[in-house]
Specification:
alpha/beta, Rossmann fold, 7-stranded mixed sheet, Quinone Oxidoreductase, Chain A, domain 1, homodimer, 12 helices
Chain lengths: 339, 339
Amino acid sequence: MKSTVLYGPRDIRFEQRDDPKIVEPTDAILRISAACVCGSDLWPYRGIQPIGKPTPMGHEYVGVVEEIGSAVKTIKRGQFVIGSFVFSDNTCPNCHYGYPSGCMNREFASGAQAPLFRVPMADGTLVATPSMPDREMIPSLLTISDVLGTGWFAAEAANVRTGSTVAVVGDGAVGLLGVLSAKEMGAEQIIAMSRHPARQKLAKEYGATDIVTERGDEGVERIMELTKGVGADSVLECVGTQEAMMQAIHSARTGGSVGYVGVPHGVTLDGEELFFEHVHLMGGPAPVRRYLPDLIDRVWKGKINPGKVFDLTLPLEQVAEGYRAMDERRAIKALLLPD
Amino acid sequence: MKSTVLYGPRDIRFEQRDDPKIVEPTDAILRISAACVCGSDLWPYRGIQPIGKPTPMGHEYVGVVEEIGSAVKTIKRGQFVIGSFVFSDNTCPNCHYGYPSGCMNREFASGAQAPLFRVPMADGTLVATPSMPDREMIPSLLTISDVLGTGWFAAEAANVRTGSTVAVVGDGAVGLLGVLSAKEMGAEQIIAMSRHPARQKLAKEYGATDIVTERGDEGVERIMELTKGVGADSVLECVGTQEAMMQAIHSARTGGSVGYVGVPHGVTLDGEELFFEHVHLMGGPAPVRRYLPDLIDRVWKGKINPGKVFDLTLPLEQVAEGYRAMDERRAIKALLLPD
């Protein structure tokens, strides 16, 4: 098969690789229906997170089960399935406590920007849809694999409740789906921070009540104005930079919460400052596997339409253009369709 | 009156100062029944937290209302009262949300190691006991003012629940009362980290089920052993150093919680490490005012005996010896009694 490999900064190649095979009896092989480029793929793409060797890319995926190992029990050939960007056994204590992304046997997915993809611990990782989905539903189902699940976790980690005042830092796909998640959880006021008209529009469609274009300290000031000088109950940090993290922490009210899901790059927190900020902090890789049944159900019933974050659709073989478009912020998120 | 002033590292003086007077109509003047030396007083005492000028010391206090300003409505002359180490109006949005220690008009108490003490915002800050307490109850009531309230907050911030597994980092008065708080909140396993026999004994009396003498990475390993390789649901950080903070974070299970109440001195957190640790973090100055009615009730009814943390009682004029004994770890906590 031909699939996506990153060789170095901005050097994405679509090249011949061996087809994946069942390695462990708990594996499944999926025929990918749709994959995509993640904001977090841009860290290594830009060379900010160096890679040691050519690396197969892609960790968001939906597809049809092509083959299963001899020990796979719940997942069947021919099912349409969604998995998390973290493979998990779904049986260890960490999974039991609701953190499959911290599974004691976890593996981070890689190589899903391809026509075929091997998923270890298939029974633990994958959830099947009730039946074969319509084509139009596939983008929304695909978001559950990472960006919707991650936005959902940001809102959960930030303790969003009915009536909450929420601020969202970051207008990428995760931030936008953080807005959608906060809305689903009953937030009353949702302040989206964005300077980009198309993203502002989608944020509003997903439930944002206010848009703040300022960043850093000025952004914090605007949020204080919009919350009567108190700060937001919940802040979703969906970027991963020092500026975004501090903006999030300073935007939360005393006793409020920050859910941070942007993978931190060069972020340092001063203990004393954090102490006097008096905010709840929670973040990490989203426990997507835990959310799969609920989020599949919401998409399946047409309650939410997270697939709108895909504003660029490309055949898989043009994956390099998908990276370029996102790197240059011409696209929010690029959907990749194998032949 | 003669009262306590810190002039510089290890230079505590008990010297003549003006009696406090009503300054604002919302003030009250207390005749102090008991005060004490706090672990946090040792930071400036040791010169780790420099003071710019001679500083009146003491922020934990119980006493009888001697005088009230013209605007004081709920607090009466002659009442026995307890206040928080943070003065608060108890009406602003931050107080309303349960964080009086983040009150928009807050002031940090100072100068309570004295026979008379001025309390601003008396109606917001002070709570009266049902009647005049017996002398033996006074030490326990005094702990509510800071160390018990702070240990209680550590347990609350660390989400201690019925059946929780809890680890407590720090065997000072706050750590010991963190053990007591976790026990009151229904924790099943409470691991106290202490090398000091007298403190281990009191920790066990307060509900500790296990004692760990190791520190740093070795301490973390022991906690992992005691929790079947999973980590603790809740960890109370009651020290404020880098080592203690990292020990706390690494001792919590995935998805677990760290409540940190040791005032951080030179603590820095790496964002990426925190992200992959996947723990809830909450800390800050304890919202003691919110706990006062409940904790007074528990002491009043004899359910808890937090006053046992005082293992040294001195006349107020010997306050300097109280500091020395705590600095040299000869005493857990020194009770100071004015004439």
